[in-house]
Amino acid sequence: MFSRDIGIDLGTANVLIYVKGRGVVLDEPSVVAIDTQSGRALEVGESARRMVGRTPGNIVAIRPLKDGVIADFEVTETMLRYFLNKINVKGFLAKPRILICTPTNITSVEKKAIKEAAEKSGGKQVFLEEEPKVAAIGAGMDIFQPSGNMVVDIGGGTTDVAVLSMGDIVTASSIKMAGDKFDYEILNHIKKKYKLLIGERTAEEIKVNVATVFPGARKEEIDIRGRDMVSGLPRTITVGSEEVQGALEESVAHLIQAAKSVLEKTPPELSADIIDKGIILTGGGALLHGIDQLFAEELKVPVLVAEEPMQCVAKGTGLMLEHIDKIAKRKLI
User: Fold this and answer.
1) Which residues contact 175 (CB under 8 A, 6 or more apart)?
2) 13 is in an annotated binding site
3) pLDDT tens, 265-322?
4) Is-contact 281 292, C-beta < 8 A?
5) d(CA 309, CA 135)
């Protein structure tokens, strides 16, 4: 049994794993539930996510990645090892080669941590690639031609904006403003306006079911339950699309600003290509209602949401694995 090459989208919110010849085989939340008394990991992934905000004192649900980088090394390693065992890719003797993605502006120390975690979890050789580049490939863009392509990858912890040409990044920016921050803004808005405490999962439900970031694009309502900060008792309120749009306005403005600054630094020839082809949105944040309309209006270029935006990075690692031997030669320093 020979080992397989695998690609990992190690995200702040989700981990996706692509196995050469099998496609995306795993898509689970980046959460580990740990017993604080014994230090043992009890659950990983989806089953651990269900415990968030619902655990007794001795069990904590940890998200080991923050803003696209490793915040807790040991827990990340535990999580990766669990996922790799789950998909059962280790050969009889050989370990898999792993291609893993990182945000564009992380430090060499952060890169080393990601590489080390993957090696310790059972990777033979580990290659790192920049996330927007991989997302663009996964979204079906041909970035290897001498023409400009622009991608905005909105994940859980970071948003990466990049202009690519000739198979590489020409200009890029990575900001710590993404899906998690949107949840936090919603949670905060409810707390301030209604004096009601809600959990992260409820905030995410609001984001998915009623939120929009484009004025007037959606008119829906949702009933949510939380704890009244004054009486301490459970209470139900109704939240509508319009007020959520107001709560998210400032955060989304940061994304627009990041895209504008990347466009401002882009050579004019490539800018002309982007006007023709438009900008592609990838990552879970691309599913935020109205975000494509808002980008199109603010940047004055066509904006398209990639097909299955959550899977673009994982699929991109798959396509890059086809050329892993070339990558391996290039990286042998």
Assistant:
1) 158, 159, 161, 254, 255, 258
2) yes
3) 999 999 999 999 999 999 999 999 999 999 999 999 999 999 999 999 999 999 998 8
4) yes
5) 9
The single residue listed with the structure tokens 């403003």 is 177
Q: Is 204 annotated as a binding residue?
A: yes
Instruction: Say whether pLDDT at 130 is over 60.
Output: yes
Residue 167 tokens read as 């198979």
Indicate the Cα dihedral angle 202, 152, 103, 12, nearest 10°. Answer: 10
Q: What is the pLDDT of residues 41-71, one digit of tens each?
A: 999 999 998 887 777 778 888 899 998 889 9
Is there a binding annotation on residue 205?
yes
Per the annotation, does 77 bind a ligand? no
- The structural domains of the chain, ordered by start, are 5-131+313-331 (3.30.420.40), 134-177+254-310 (3.30.420.40), 179-247 (3.90.640.10)
Q: Is 85 annotated as a binding residue?
A: no
197 annotated to bind ligand: no
Q: Does the annotation place 209 within a ligand binding site?
A: no
Q: Strands 196-197 and 168-175, how do they pair?
A: unpaired
Is 284 labelled a binding residue? Answer: yes
Residue the block writes with tokens 């995306």: 24
- Distance in angstroms (rounded) separating the CA atoms of residues 317 and 100: 7
Give residue-wise pLDDT tens across range 153-174.
999 999 999 999 999 999 999 9
Cross-strand pairs, 168: 165
d(CA 89, CA 94): 10
In terms of Cα–Cα distance, which of 197, 209, 198, 157 is closest to 180? 157
Would the annotation count 91 as a binding residue? no
106: closest CA among 225, 239, 12?
A: 12
**Listed residue (8, 14, 22, 48) closest to 283, CA to CA:** 14
Q: How far is CA 192 from the centre of its chain?
A: 28
Average pLDDT over residues 6-23: 92
Does residue 136 have a known ligand-binding role? no
Rounded Cα distance between 76 and 73, Å, is 5
